[in-house]
Specification:
Strands 1-2-7-8-9-10-11 form a 7-stranded mixed beta sheet, covered by helices on one side. Strands 12-13-14-15-16 form a 5-stranded mixed beta sheet. The longest helix is centred in the C-terminal third of the chain and has 19 residues. It folds into 2 domains: 241 residues, 4-Layer Sandwich (Metallo-beta-lactamase, Chain A); 145 residues, Flavodoxin domain (Rossmann fold, 3-Layer(aba) Sandwich). It is of the alpha/beta class. A hairpin with a 3-residue loop joins strand 4 and strand 5.
């Protein structure tokens, strides 16, 4: 059965008593923020909530769609009725129309999360002066007469400033980017639009996944609210079984591998042109396997799709990368895997590098720099070997594995640093 379109040009969409969608559709969008494919376009969801003492506007739209936003807003409220503008997130696709809205509704108070002020200053320079605002935290409220908006901080989902807004009398959670996705359908509701499950998971993996711990913290706050409707900043509005979308987030954010008591995991990745780096990799793994309570896995990147390793990396405690040096650089499979680490949180994990070389051996240092740039800990100096590793070289590789394993399991002996090492 087909469903008629609910979004009409210049017209708001009634969602509940006194609550309207006033956003914009962008069906032609095919790539968002450079990194996201958007085969179905996206939506910029903004909302108006009317209470007995005035109107709240929750989020705005990307600047290119400001005219649509204002046309819809003007159908449900006069500008002098707007008492509060709530921004759950200050990224430009949510705040693009903010400066003009503040000009048109000068008496409205601006409400942001308590982590947002520094970001606001950079976004609204065109106003000439920094606007006044109210910074809110968990449980803070704004009264609209017979209605109350309250706020839940959800930092790093996916910027430091993100928050959710809760309208208790309707059980409506205006969730910002959380539970959203890039999927444009003018029927708006999750029970009438097309199948967007892929888009929902894709959005989570590319936007929320690096902040898995923060996702779980946010769910601990949001699940007890038991919202009847979840209204995200992008994608369908979730009125049918909203709890299932929270449950999906929890499943996606919860480690799939059952952690063994007291056990750490180390992954050794390598690519090898002539077998020399492979021999080193096997020796590193052998040394690490001697460490108690450490599970070691070895992977050849040349015969694998690096995407399959992301889940393993997310849950591992330590990562070792082996690369030969070709044209003064690490090889492509290693760089592809290192690039994929932006999708997960690796901050604080232990890392190391090794590899063989013919002339200059830059690969090891370049990989170490990348690991440090990802905020990983690199406690063991990388190891590079010229051409064929000797038995002494392989023993040094085993020692690298032992040493890193000791750091992972907390059994490494403290050492005195020679100041010459820091030069």
């Amino acid at each position: 059965m087909s469903h008629p379109a609910v979004v009409q040009p210049g017209q708001p969409v009634a969602l509940a008593d006194g609550v309207h969608w006033i956003g914009a559709l962008d069906p032609q969008m095919r790539r968002f923020d450079i990194i996201l494919n958007t085969a179905n376009g996206t939506s910029y969801n903004a909302y108006a909530v009317r209470g007995s003492a005035g109107v709240a506007v929750i989020d705005t739209v990307k600047i290119e769609f400001a005219d649509e936003f204002f046309a819809r807003l003007e159908q449900v409220a006069r500008y002098d009725e707007i008492r509060v503008i709530v921004l759950n997130h200050l990224e430009p696709d949510h705040s693009g129309a903010l400066p003009e809205l503040m000009r048109r509704a000068p008496n409205a108070e601006l409400v942001l999360s308590n982590r947002a002020p520094s970001i606001l200053r950079a976004l609204v320079r065109e106003l000439g002066t920094e606007p006044e605002f109210i910074a809110v935290g968990d449980g803070d409220c704004f009264e609209l007469g017979d209605r109350r908006l309250s706020f839940v901080n959800t930092p790093y989902l996916h910027w430091p400033d993100t928050q959710c807004t809760w309208l208790e009398d309707q059980g409506m959670l205006f969730s910002g980017d959380v539970f959203g996705c890039h999927f444009c359908d003018d029927r708006l509701w999750n029970d009438t639009v097309g199948d967007f499950r892929f888009s929902f998971d894709y959005y989570y993996h590319h936007i929320m996944r690096p902040f898995r711990a923060h996702v779980l913290e946010a769910l601990d706050k949001l699940e007890p609210l038991a919202p009847r409707t979840i209204l995200p900043a992008h994608g369908p509005i979730l009125r049918q079984d909203p709890a299932s979308y929270m449950a999906r987030y929890r499943r996606l954010a919860t480690p799939e591998l059952a952690a063994r008591s007291g056990e750490k995991t180390l992954l050794v990745f390598y690519a090898s042109a002539y077998g020399n780096t492979e021999r080193m990799a096997r020796a590193v793994a052998e040394g690490a396997e001697e460490v108690e309570h450490l599970r070691v896995s070895l992977y050849d990147l040349q015969v694998s799709d690096v995407a399959q390793f992301v889940d393993l990396i997310e849950e591992a405690d330590g990562l070792v990368f082996g690369s030969p040096t070709l044209n003064a650089d690490a090889v492509k499979p290693v760089w592809e895997l290192l690039s994929s680490l932006t999708l997960v949180s690796v901050k604080g994990k232990f890392g190391a590098a090794f590899g063989s070389y013919g002339w200059s051996g830059e690969a090891v240092g370049l990989v170490e720099d990348r690991l440090r740039g990802l905020k990983m800990r690199v406690p063991v100096k990388g190891l590079k070997v010229k051409l064929n590793p000797t038995e002494d070289d392989l023993e040094r590789c085993r020692e690298l594995g032992r040493s890193l394993g000791a750091h992972l399991t907390g059994t490494a002996r403290k050492r005195v640093i020679d100041m010459a090492e820091l030069a």
